[in-house]
Specification:
The complex is a heterodimer. Chain A is built from seven helices and six strands. Chain A is rod-shaped. By secondary structure, chain A is α+β, with helices and mostly antiparallel strands. Chain A folds into three domains: 53 residues, no CATH class; 48 residues; 133 residues, Phosphorylase Kinase, domain 1 (2-Layer Sandwich). A six-stranded antiparallel sheet of chain A has the order 1-2-3-6-5-4, sandwiched between helices. By secondary structure, chain B is mostly helical. Chain B folds into two domains: 85 residues, RNA polymerase sigma factor, region 2, helix turn helix motif (Rna Polymerase Sigma Factor, Chain: A); 83 residues, Orthogonal Bundle (Arc Repressor Mutant, subunit A). In chain B, helix 4 crosses helix 7. Chain B is globular. The N and C termini of chain B lie far apart (62 Å). Classes of the chains: A alpha+beta, B mainly alpha. At the A-B interface, helix 1, helix 3 and helix 4 of A face helix 1, helix 2, helix 5, helix 6 and helix 8 of B.
Chain lengths: 252, 170
């Protein structure tokens, strides 16, 4: 219920038709008795009326097909599809780039640096030949370790393979791209040979994780330590060579 | 979906009218309506409150307009740095040199919120409650702002605001 005299808010509510029936009647009676207030209310009503008139034409503007909900829905879908498409293309591009990069890396690894390939080659050339010219032999004054140390600073100790029946029998310096390498050949009573190979690291100072690979009938076990790469090469399937490899795994 | 589209089509002319009252320009009004419909359609299922569809759409449109307006104000301020000019064409102020001769002209010189309020209440017949929800203020605030908007419209229509510039011209 409104109270009299009415507040300005009540007058606006009256203009906007937001009073209930009883209040409206009360106000109408009041306005009839107060022409000055009635005049103000009438002015507001006239303003509202002319605004309605001024804007009524706007409701009858020609329809704009681009504003039709169906059209907008379609446009939203299209945009979404386009976003998904760009995301997919991006994903494909990144994957292709990544995969080919990885492929290229694999290829350079395979062609460039099969680990200790020269150790295997040296074994094939020298270790299996009895008449190999040797830079060191057991008859020399110094032992094999002394010979190695005189050519390489801080080389690893030569593995002691005596437990497996192998003894060092000859040594040979070999040239590599990065400087001198050396091979010490071991032989057992049955004439089987193994080789211990030492060389400076390859390009970009490439040190090796401890590993093993098979190359034809040969097996190369390799590792790195104190600035050199090492390998032990021997027949892959020979039980005596396997025993020697076991001995190698114990700390050198 | 089709039922919703039908409802939207019914409200569409009113959205366009409201947009024109805000932008004062039919083609940018339609851009505004389009942006608002996109917003409404993409947030339809999650955000739509119970109640009058028209009021909900008006509130989306109003917010879109305020955002765009704010952006363009920033832009024009930046422009002023280079041109030194000042374009406050749409800012109502007592320094106005033009006296409105019709209610519509007077209406166009009100500020954004006053225009929106008068259109909602006087033209569209929204309740004070719905306006309060759109503007996110208490109903009492809506009523006092509406009262101020009406006074301003009255004064502008009567040409009672004269300006220093006009007096000098006399």
């Amino acid at each position: 219920m409104i109270t009299l005299p009415p507040s300005e808010r009540d007058l606006h509510a009256y203009v906007d038709g937001q009073l209930d029936e009883a209040d409206r009647t009360t106000l109408q009676t009041y306005l009839a008795a107060h022409p000055d207030v009635a005049e103000q209310v009438l002015a507001w009503q006239r303003d509202a009326q002319s605004l309605r008139a001024a804007f009524s034409g706007e409701l009858h503007r020609v329809a704009n097909p681009e504003l039709d909900p169906a059209f907008i829905r379609q446009r939203l879908r299209r945009n979404r599809t386009r976003h998904y498409a760009s995301a997919a293309v991006l994903l494909i591009a990144v994957s292709v780039g990544g995969l080919s990069g990885w492929q290229a890396r694999e290829m350079t690894l395979v062609t460039g640096t099969l680990p200790m390939a020269d150790a295997v080659q040296a074994y094939r050339m020298f270790a299996v030949k009895d008449d190999m010219a040797s830079d060191w032999s057991p008859t020399k004054v110094s032992d094999a370790q002394g010979w190695l140390d005189s050519n390489f600073a801080q080389a690893n100790r030569l593995p002691d393979l005596a437990s497996a029946g192998f003894k060092p029998v000859s040594g040979r310096l070999t040239p590599t791209e990065q400087g001198a390498g050396a091979m010490v050949v071991y032989r057992d009573a049955q004439g089987r040979t193994l080789s211990f190979y030492i060389r400076p690291p390859g390009e970009r100072n490439h040190l090796l994780p401890r590993g093993s690979r098979r190359d034809g009938e040969l097996q190369a076990d390799y590792w790195s330590g104190s600035g050199y790469n090492y390998a032990m090469v021997g027949p892959a399937d020979d039980p005596a060579a396997q025993a020697a490899r076991q001995a190698l795994k114990n700390p050198i | 979906m089709n039922e919703l589209d039908e409802q939207l089509r019914e409200v569409l002319p009113r959205m366009r009218r409201f947009a024109v009252s805000l932008t004062r320009d039919p083609s940018s009004a339609d851009d505004l309506v389009q942006a608002s419909l996109e917003k409404a359609l993409s947030s339809w299922s999650s955000k739509r409150p119970e109640g009058d569809l028209r009021a909900w759409l008006f509130s989306i449109l109003y917010r879109q307009f305020l955002d765009a307006h704010r952006r363009s104000r920033r832009y024009s301020r930046m422009l002023e740095l280079f041109t030194g000019g000042k374009d406050d064409h749409f800012e109502p102020s007592v320094e106005r040199t033009v006296v409105a001769r019709s209610t519509l002209q007077a209406f166009e010189r009100l500020n954004t919120e006053q225009r929106a309020l008068l259109l909602w209440v006087s033209v569209e017949g929204l309740s004070y409650n719905e306006c309060a929800q759109i503007l996110d203020v208490p109903v009492g605030t809506v009523m006092s702002r509406l009262s101020r908007a009406r006074q301003a419209l009255r004064l502008l229509s009567d040409g009672e605001i004269t300006t220093p510039a006009l007096r000098i011209l006399k």
